[in-house]
Write a structure and sequence with these properties.
Aldehyde Dehydrogenase, Chain A, domain 1, 411 residues, homodimer
Chain lengths: 411, 411
Amino acid sequence: MMTTHEILLDAAGAKSAVAAADTATKNRALLAMANALVENSDAILAANALDMDAARGTTGEVMLDRLALSTARLEAMAEGIREVAALPDPVGRVLAHVERPNGLVIERTAVPMGVIAIIYESRPNVTADAAALAVKAGSACVLRAGKEAHRSAAAIVEAMREGLREAGLPETAVNLVEDTTRDSAGELMTASGLVDLLIPRGGAGLIRACVENATVPCIETGTGICHIYVDAAADLDMALNIVENAKCSRPSVCNACEVCLVHKDVAEKFLPMLKERIGGRVELLLDERAAGIISGKRAGARDFDTEFLDYILAVGVVDSLDTAMAHIAAHSTGHSDCIVTADDDAAERFLRGVDSAAVYVNASTRFTDGGEFGLGCEMGISTQKLHARGPMGLQELCTYKYIIRGGGQVR
Amino acid sequence: MMTTHEILLDAAGAKSAVAAADTATKNRALLAMANALVENSDAILAANALDMDAARGTTGEVMLDRLALSTARLEAMAEGIREVAALPDPVGRVLAHVERPNGLVIERTAVPMGVIAIIYESRPNVTADAAALAVKAGSACVLRAGKEAHRSAAAIVEAMREGLREAGLPETAVNLVEDTTRDSAGELMTASGLVDLLIPRGGAGLIRACVENATVPCIETGTGICHIYVDAAADLDMALNIVENAKCSRPSVCNACEVCLVHKDVAEKFLPMLKERIGGRVELLLDERAAGIISGKRAGARDFDTEFLDYILAVGVVDSLDTAMAHIAAHSTGHSDCIVTADDDAAERFLRGVDSAAVYVNASTRFTDGGEFGLGCEMGISTQKLHARGPMGLQELCTYKYIIRGGGQVR
């Protein structure tokens, strides 16, 4: 078995070649990686079957479904890689150009990060997505899959490396950590000088562990306690559609709505409508005032601070826009929050005052997504303020440097 | 004494008001802060005299000079704040605007960080600079000065708070940590949810401590082992001017040159010129091959990995551009590195291949500075790749959020 340190050195050795690769080479590699996934379907599905066998019994249905691969899912993964190939190359863009009075020409230019490490859990498709985005962004990557998905991830990486070799890129541009104990995650978090960016993709526990222990630059992703505030001036039918969509269209994702706050002036009318529309599918957890209007289960102490990721919605009644904003400031994870209102002043106050990655007026929080924002595929949704906020596309996987051309200037 | 936690809560309480302040209000506050510094000169100089008295005896001349204030230095600090007032407001700029096919209008908009913490050492002027930049960037700040400068910093903050009050901003927009033990630095590093950005400004030890211990987002600043590579195709007179300027114009700063690498084909000619030009002022530490050409002290094992911040220069001879770039990759801190050459191909290879915040052709590394880059005043020079790289001006002290305006769209 290769040690994690050896794997990090492999990635470091590959990073110059990946960074120097031109757009055509990177795209050729990506298309070859996609094809290799399909061509190696049998081997990948066999590895996945071993992972599934090992997981059965100890793992619930939802987790098993996340882990499972099929020919159709492999084809979708390949298609995802082809979509990354079709995106514009983020490397080399000149972000700012200035000619100084002394004649120095200074260009702020997008350049690759170098080595990107991604720690994730059981979804094998993250292996392909993350590798494709890293390669397109000109970086080598070191992937660490969850133990339960390791055999699948290894087979996927082996196939993708075929594609890299075909395109003349070093196969060590994409690496999978072989040690599946917790040690290897810790090593990635503290590999100063060898990891330029660490991205944890997974549950709240993993992300907290990275934020607390990482000494390498790290981006916090994903936890979403998203709010929809139905203002006194809301179009209630619109509000109903938005809450229904944000809660029910895919409850397991981070941009799903977990909390609905309703202005007291419309609560008497809106809450019965809400109960009728989604009460059959969604468990409504009511604060005291909401429970005075509709019947249902009372919310517990932690229910306004829980990412349910399920058909559950905490519902509260508030006195004003200000109370709603104060509640959001105290309970939001800074992912996506929305106001439904026909009052432009209320909308602007909400947009300015709510400190989240995505702040909406009159639209579902489910739009917080790289594709929906027009950024293309994404590596995750950042809920921190440093470097990247919201969906992280290819641009956010790059850094920049200043290139200064002179003719002998001294200071 | 207020606890550090209480001070952080004060800053959190002020951040909305600072973020919401319009440009005119912030500028009025900055000008009032500058005036208050001058008006309170007596009190500030008296506090500084106490710091100086306490430091004398245990502290060297260089440190004492850093700590010392005078009427002229206070006036320069006030002028620095006025310069920040004159810079464009970084808050509210629309960084990207897209209208999606479904009619959603998505704007990526620059917004304040919230609370910026700055841990620094003995230079009292950092107190004024950092506070001014934070306020202009719409953030509250929590400053932690070194123990030896605490009385001076407290008097400066007291004066600046007068200015904030005059402009109708909360005085808790600018806060100074009262606890001068190491505990308070540790508290700032781990104040998750209360510190949005931590910037250490000081020596390598402080920066390492922050990088290793911070659980809040942190930007590594400052350490500069900067290289100048004199290529085979260099104009040697230009090279001489550049090395002299980069080494001698201000050796104590991070953008000063610490290492000169010379291509073997020009070393016989260039090294004697270098010795003649700067050998009287600068101690040249020579590698084996350089020592075969000119006489001088031999470099020790660590001399190519040392930020001298003094009239000392490590000098080596290399076989090629590639060897020079490999040396820089192994020994640079990623701050500023330069090639002197008349060969455009060599220049472009160096610019692409060297992975530092600022990469130069034919100009002194001393230009790596917010003012010289046209960014205005700076909060420090980032040597990491996340968020900000190189000089951090007002833009780099902001984050962004996505503002999405819809008409009832669901997904």
